[in-house]
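Request from the bench team (R.T.):
"We need a structural guess for the complex before ordering more acetyl coenzyme *A. Sequence and SMILES attached. Just send the tokens back."

Command: build protein-acetyl coenzyme *A structure.
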Amino acid sequence: MTFTDTALAPKPTYLTPERVKIIGSFSPEFAEILTPSALAFVAELHRRFDSTRQALLARRAERQADFAAGILPDFLPETKRIREQDWTVSPLPDDLLDRRVEITGPVERKMIINALNSGASVFMADLEDSNAPTWENVVQGQINLRDAVRRTISLSTPTKEYRLNEKTALLMVRPRGWHLEEKHVLVDGEPISASLLDFGLYYFHNAHELCARGSAPYFYLPKLESHLEARLWNDVFGFAQWSLKLPKCLIKATVLIETLPAAFELNEILYELREHSAGLNCGRWDYIFSYIKRLGLNPDFRLPNRADVTMTVPFMAAYSQLVIQTCHRRGVHAIGGMAAQIPIKNDPAANEAALEKVRQDKIREATNGHDGTWVAHPGLVPVAMEVFNRLMLGPNQIENKRLDVQVSAADLVRAPQGAITEEGLKLNIDVAIQYIASWLGGNGCVPIYNLMEDAATAEISRAQVWQWLHTPGTTLADGRPVTAELYRSLVPGQLDKIKAQIGEEAYEKGRFLEAARLFDRLVMSEEFIEFLTVPAYEQLA
Ligand SMILES: CC(=O)SCCNC(=O)CCNC(=O)[C@H](O)C(C)(C)COP(=O)(O)OP(=O)(O)OC[C@H]1O[C@@H](n2cnc3c(N)ncnc32)[C@H](O)[C@@H]1OP(=O)(O)O
Ligand SMILES: O=CC(=O)O
Ligand SMILES: [Mg+2]
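Reply to R.T.: structure attached below.
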């Protein structure tokens, strides 16, 4: 039969293995990623590991019930031996020894090229905090990563041609966290785990190529809450290597320590992943968010204005030093985190002040013993590089064992003093609504008031408003109680401010009212909603 009328021709669709269904849009380019064999691989990962993922998420909820009942997080008695015994993680490959400056960014094509060319040691391509997981972003991101691995990635725009330099940063990939699902790929009628999809597609398409190039697939693992979640990743890695017949080309992964419970299981997380470990990283923004989420409504742990929760407040200083000490004892890197300042255009004085803040942050990290750090923007690579080149003379400082560090369970939760002000409350409302509107529009990382905002930083803003609204006795510095009436009276003013800043047309095109409604649901809910991106995903096109 021939089809003369194109309307009658069958619509092209993906060829899928049995009981795997794709409900995202089709394109021939996407089909190069979503091949039957790649889908069979990710479906197999999901069938083998999803029930454990679900059980671990349920365990998070059980632990939260304990925290809400006043039981504070503590080091685990059952893993005392792992903390006390001497052991180190497996040796690192040469290309992971020097990671002094790492740039991060979403998996957008231009940004991948710019990041790889930025002069940084590592580029962490991000499918998590900085990526709004539209179907297009997720699959196009995999196309971009495939082309980056093969060094064929390029881009032609009316103003500039983009291609890779001779020397580029080492690529690491951050799949989405265990809590997320990908609604466009169904396995046995259920949405696939987003972590397993992101990991699995990247591994399937690139592992052989990376190993043939003398490297290996390297990952960043986000938002883990326990060593059992690290064990799950370890099992996934083992299966993936076996399945693609690459037992000797070891996957390596850096775990972000960005939840409060994980800070109590640093040794255990490294131990679970000891064959695959490329150390730990201080994911400071999610860590603050997790502190608020897990310690919740206990007034002893109520945090002041977001701007005052810096890396030098007691619980943040304690955690970052414990990460450094633990990693160095186990023979592996402790990577620092992200300063939120980004370069400021058209205002040299403000720009220099922002760069100086980044510089001071990197000096603190290098002096404390971090083996590298993160930057959000290519313009910050030279700033961080200068500091680490000056203060870290070898490829890393794992030999600096930081035996002076003594951190107790109480230190890890010690809250800072400080005020909650109307300005702080308004800023949280403003930033969270702007960010959610951007995310719903498909962009997961934006500059707001000259700071990088992504899912982790926005979560702090929404969690603080929730905490201040629901913790009994919360008052502003001027003595007024933080109430639902006060919060709701401030929202219209913030929306008007956003409209005045971006103009009526951009405001009407954006999804600000929808974002404000979602924000209201998030902060007014009696029960803390685990992640804003979960209800937001239901509204993501
Ligand atoms: C809490 C965490 O999880 S941190 C990790 C997640 N967050 C991130 O990765 C932050 C990534 N950074 C970004 O997305 C951006 O830097 C933003 C949104 C903060 C600022 O973006 P913009 O305002 O567009 O930056 P700006 O206009 O100064 O960009 C200038 C150039 O640098 C590029 N650029 C900016 N940031 C990056 C980056 N992180 N990686 C690669 N290129 C970048 C832009 O693409 C642009 O390129 P062009 O000149 O070729 O057009
Ligand atoms: O992912 C990093 C963070 O700070 O959160
Ligand atoms: Mg994070």
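Two things stood out. Residues 117 and 166 are 9 Å apart (CA to CA). The domain at 43-308 is CATH 3.20.20.360 (TIM Barrel).
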